[in-house]
Amino acid sequence: MTHATVLISGASVAGPALAYFLHRDGYDVTVVERAPDLRDSGYAVDFRGAAFDVLDDLGILAEVRRHETKMRGTSLVDEAGTETGMLPAEAFAGELEVPKRELTRILHRITTHDVEYVFNDSISALTQHDSGVAVEFERGAPRTFDLVIGADGVYSKVRQLAFGPHADAVRHLGLSGAGFSTANYLGLDRSGVLQHAPDTAIYAFSASDADRLTVSLSFATPTPALDRCGREEQERALRTAFAGRGWEAPRLLDAMSEADDFYFSSACQVHLDRWSQGRVALLGDAGYCAAPTSGMGTSQALIGARTLARHLAGANGDHTTAFAAYEAELRPYVAENQATGVEGAAMFGGGGR
User: Fold this and answer.
1) Mind listing the domains of the chain with CATH numbers?
2) Are 114 and 101 in contact (CB under 8 A)?
């Protein structure tokens, strides 16, 4: 018996989770990832609500818990550094927080013997036929799959090829910023500190590595255009935005320029009328990103993966029915998370939309 073949683009969280469930249901799964290896980036991910049921279904809940950062909370301070309030750990860390690299590593380990992983490659073209999807790759030979799933992030290549330009789906929430790490000179111990003004915010915390301080500098921006600029221009925009700011701003700006893990991104959401086109469907941030400011990205990815797999398994090979049921079930949950993402962006200096 020939099993149905599925290509998943993206080897972060949503892709490998879906791969696990699809393989369990009898599919032959291939995961393609443009990075040369597992990504070691990303500071921490958190889990809330039904995501715990998915971790349990994956058989990894106990292992994930062993990597808990055990954050204690976040102090709110003014520009003089005086504490003005306190946010509970759940505000940023959810019900459980772990370093993202650990979750990615675990998901890869539980799938690597049953799923084909192709690193250092990316989809370059998709052509749908009645019986499958012809896929061209940047490096590998062309192949045909029964289904293709885009789990490749906000700027999804699968979405771009099958649904249209990024501009048609990506909505900027009026907020951009940089992340990096430096020495923990603030002496934070599994805790964070947040200082925000109307158009800027500084968030610093120390979690799993007591010697390192993870820093986020965010500021209001009219468009996500800076995402496509080089680091020099991004740093210049940050220095302009934080010019004259007190507290630790000058020192953190200097640390930013010395950081070897500098990362810049904008808070965006993905909104589409449909999450599938023929034999191609979208999962996680690629189809319905709620923005990092929602605190729900990882939970949404895991819940989406299991929901999609469950409907595919229950549709007896009818992908059209499965995709429609997956979307109908998940959309209300996504809408709530996206509303939270807009509110969170405003808290960190964004205008929201």
Assistant:
1) 5-66+99-169+269-347 (3.50.50.60), 73-96+173-267 (3.30.9.30)
2) no
